[in-house]
Design a protein that fits this description.
- This protein is an alpha+beta fold.
- The chain has 27 helices and 22 strands.
- 34% of the residues lie in helices and 9% in strands.
- Strands 13-14-16-17 form a 4-stranded antiparallel β-sheet. Strands 1-6 form a two-stranded antiparallel sheet. Strands 2-10 form a two-stranded parallel sheet.
Length: 844
């Protein structure tokens, strides 16, 4: 059995029947006097305006110029996987349909729709169905077998039995305060220049960057306590728990203008105004900015069905600390990452390159990818972006290195577990290694990382000791955490990347690089020394200290994602604009939320920001503390004792981490997730041990985040403790009545004991499907069902998502398929992936 969530597509009944049945009903709606044809036209127009060609545009432009622009690189890093993409586009169609209804689209009744107007449940459900949202709004069906209690689902769904959507991928981010949109519905703060806040216009975010955030590369105060590794872990963990896709449309929905060519604010474009003398403007009055995709509104079916809800944004990942950076957050991504022909439960690795016989991540399947190429390499050789559980793994080399480290750790664990339990099949080995890896992510984050960030006092106040799973705690990542508070780490990024030799000294063959030289550059890992020099540089050099007048260096504010001289982006402006795009309330409202005093005056502001030159600049731009964007305000606050954040971000990060811990039924400390012996072994492990086990580095700090000097503060790997996997040894006891479960060809079984009953759950290898009962229970008369069989799936019969490109013939094989190419374009070595322009549909 392949574990998946049934989203209930069957409930989305055929368009025509549903459409007209809804129009016949709902006579109590506000639309009763309006002709049916008006609603039809509004909805059809709203859906038709939403146009997508972003993915193919990215590929065309890379093929045309050879180098991707910063805007295209951002689009690539924010491009959702298929399920997120489908949901995003359905939500945008629904939102545009509502916008059409809001306008005076009817001939007889010149009546517009206000956000507070009451709509019938029938009409809203009709909108959801026609837009494509409905299947994604139905509750998931949770599998009821022993396996579902043993291993978390890849989507994160069904973690909470009463609220199966909590923490699941491709659901809305949580709102801890009501959204603050200019129109109360979806329009970002700063959208309409005529609207004033406390008597003033909001400042342009680029102006805030230039006057408050920006610092030169040379203006860096180094952290005297923590290494650069703490910055990388923060980014890596952020990518484990949140990803908000931006719209995949490159043009405005209403006018069809390209977002890069217009300064008009029109969905999905929310351009950033820049001064004429700005180095980023490149002759334009603004920088392109694409709004985050809206979420399909579940409240239509499961909440107040008569009031339009404010726009929400999607989290494409599971909220849980579950190593989805390694495994993905949907079954489709998970299957791409697994080595499904291996009987050891391994993940796929790069077949072309290795790092001193150690593994690299596989390359992305979509070719060509936009990653930079080695300028000294021959024209025929390409090194693509890496493929990992999160699509941003190639953004910078340090992040790619962290992803690679954990890929190796999974495969190391899976091989070691097989030696301990020779009877385990591929499914069990994969799931057990995944379970351990998720626990290590949780331990390193809550034990080693978060206390350093928010300080001991805030940790005790907001997180405290673990007291067990709390089913009333919603673990969903909040909008303010992912869009503002956890982006504090951007102020800790060094402008220089260092690579060191075995003595932790500079290597003349691997000189220091500016940050912009490692954006989207996997080739630097593969061709310039592998992981070890880069990780040594992260361990032995300090992180940048977050100082109030040195927040972000020019590598981030002037050269973000620069691969050539063809433009740039500004991370600070993107962060501020994203907060407004998401309707985040202002700084003071969040201070109130956290029980902190509001700051009403300039003098009040000086009590939390000790650099008064900075507060003067803030007041000069914002005029009133109530107008300050939450990301800026939180970033500016003086640190709490023993922390690297101020009181506001310590509160938001602390509350979020408690929710992620206490609201996770599979949290490593929860009863019945691991045995006491296994928990004892897990506690011994550390990031330093993971580095020892998966690189050629032999000397490391005991705590990878703690800054030390080599050699006196470093330990040999022989003295770094780690897990003894014998705690996972399983002694299978044959059931007295039923005996040993029968094995099944092309499948595995997992033995499980639940409520005193012996159960066996069967799964099939990739390319096969289960026929018969997946779970057998031992009764007084023996196993209650016959053993199932695994039959071959004919992938070529899939007409909705055909496995081969249009130019190829699909041939089914046992457990797989092959694509037989019929035109000059060739296939990659896997026999499936098409290479060349002819592989993609024509974009009109």
């Amino acid at each position: 059995m392949k574990v998946f969530i049934i989203l209930g597509f069957s409930a989305a009944i055929a368009f025509t029947a549903v459409f007209f049945s809804f129009l016949q009903r709902g006579k109590d709606t506000i639309f009763e006097p309006i002709e049916d044809n008006c609603i039809t036209k509004a909805i059809q127009k709203g859906s038709s305006l939403v146009n997508y060609a972003a993915h193919y545009e990215i590929k065309r432009k890379i093929q045309g110029s050879g180098i991707a622009t910063p805007t295209l690189l951002l689009a690539f890093s924010k491009f959702p996987e298929q399920e997120s993409q489908d949901i995003s586009q359905a939500a945008e169609r629904m939102e545009m349909s509502i916008q059409m209804l809001k306008q005076k689209v009817c001939q007889k009744h010149k009546r517009s729709l206000h956000p507070t107007d009451r709509l019938s449940a029938d009409l809203l459900t009709m909108l959801a169905n026609i837009s494509g949202c409905l299947p994604y709004m139905l509750p998931p069906k949770c599998p009821n077998n022993c396996l579902a209690n043993k291993y978390r689902l890849i989507t994160g769904a069904c973690n909470n039995r009463e609220h199966p959507r909590w923490g699941a991928s491709n659901t809305a981010l949580a709102r801890w305060l009501p959204a603050a949109y200019e129109d109360g519905f979806s329009q970002p703060r700063g959208w309409d220049p005529s609207i004033q806040y406390n008597g003033f216009q909001l400042p342009s975010v680029r102006e805030v960057t230039r006057k408050i955030i920006h610092a030169s590369n040379e203006a860096v105060t180094e952290d005297n306590l923590y290494s650069d590794m703490i910055m990388v872990w923060g980014q890596y963990i952020d990518h484990d728990i949140s990803f908000t896709p931006q719209s995949t449309s490159r043009t405005t929905f209403l006018s069809g203008m390209e977002c890069q060519m217009t300064c008009e604010k029109q969905n999905p474009c929310f351009p950033i105004k820049v001064p004429t003398n700005d180095t980023l403007s490149a002759g334009m009055d603004c920088l392109p900015f694409y709004r985050s995709s809206p979420a399909c509104d579940h409240a239509i079916l499961f909440g107040n069905t008569s009031v339009l809800n404010a726009r929400q944004q999607i989290n494409g990942l599971t909220s849980f600390l579950d190593a989805s950076t390694v495994y993905g957050s949907t079954p489709a991504v998970e299957n791409k990452l697994r080595n499904l022909t291996s009987q050891e439960g391994l993940l796929r690795v790069n077949l072309k390159y290795s790092d001193n016989h150690r593994e690299y991540l596989p390359f992305a399947e979509q070719l060509p990818s936009p990653c930079a190429q080695d300028p000294s390499a021959g024209g025929g050789e390409r090194l693509e972006c890496f493929l990992a559980g999160d699509g941003r793994s190639s953004e910078v080399t340090s992040l790619a290195a962290m992803h690679t480290l954990w890929l190796r750790e999974h495969n190391r664990l899976a091989r070691a577990l097989r030696r301990v339990n020779a009877h385990w099949g591929a499914h069990t080995l994969y799931q057990e290694a995944r379970k351990i890896l998720g626990a290590l992510h949780q331990i390193i984050t809550l034990r080693d990382y978060i206390p350093k960030i928010i300080g001991p006092d805030a940790f005790n106040l907001y997180i405290g000791l673990y007291t067990g799973y709390d089913p009333t705690m919603n673990p969903t990542v909040s909008n303010v955490f992912s869009t503002a508070a956890f982006r504090f780490g951007h102020a800790t990024i060094q402008p220089i990347v260092r690579r060191l030799n075995e003595q932790y000294l500079n290597d003349p063959e691997l000189p220091n690089l500016h940050l912009h030289e490692v954006f989207f550059s996997p080739w630097r890992l593969i061709k310039e020394g592998g992981l070890d020099p880069l990780i040594r540089g992260l361990l032995a050099h300090p992180a940048k200290l977050q100082v109030q007048d040195q927040l972000m260096n020019e590598e981030l504010t002037e050269r973000l994602f620069v691969l050539s001289n063809n433009g740039s982006l500004d991370l600070s402006s993107l962060n501020l604009q994203r907060g407004r795009d998401h309707g985040l309330p202002g700084y003071n409202e969040w201070r109130e939320f956290c029980g902190l005093p509001k700051l009403e005056t300039h003098t009040d502001l000086n009590t939390v920001i000790s650099n008064h030159n900075v507060t003067e600049k803030i007041m000069e731009l914002y005029h009133n503390p109530n107008n300050i964007d939450v990301w800026l305000g939180g970033l500016m606050e003086d640190f709490l004792p023993g922390a690297r954040t101020g009181p506001l971000f310590a509160c938001i990060i602390g509350k979020q981490m408690k929710a992620l811990r206490d609201g996770d039924r599979f949290w490593w400390e929860n009863d019945n997730v691991f045995t006491e012996a296994q928990k004892h072994e897990l506690k011994k492990h550390s990031l330093s041990r993971v580095i020892c086990d998966n690189t050629g580095i032999s000397e490391v700090p005991a705590d990878a985040f703690q800054l030390g000097k080599f050699p006196q503060d470093f330990k040999h790997c022989n003295n770094i403790p780690g897990m003894n996997l014998e705690a996972w040894q399983e002694f299978y006891q044959e059931d007295e009545i039923c005996g040993t479960p029968k094995s099944v060809e092309n499948g595995d079984f997992v033995y499980c004991s639940e409520s005193g009953k012996s159960t066996v759950t069967y799964t099939c290898h990739y390319g096969f499907q289960l026929q018969g009962e997946e779970q057998l229970t031992c009764t007084s008369k023996g196993w209650n069902f016959e053993v199932p069989v695994c039959i071959d799936i004919d992938e070529c019969e899939n007409e909705i998502n055909p496995p081969c490109p249009p130019s190829a013939i699909c041939i089914n094989t046992k457990g797989s398929y092959k694509c037989l190419q019929t035109d000059p374009h060739k296939l990659a070595e896997d026999g499936r992936t098409c290479i060349g322009n002819g592989c993609e549909p024509t974009v009109h």
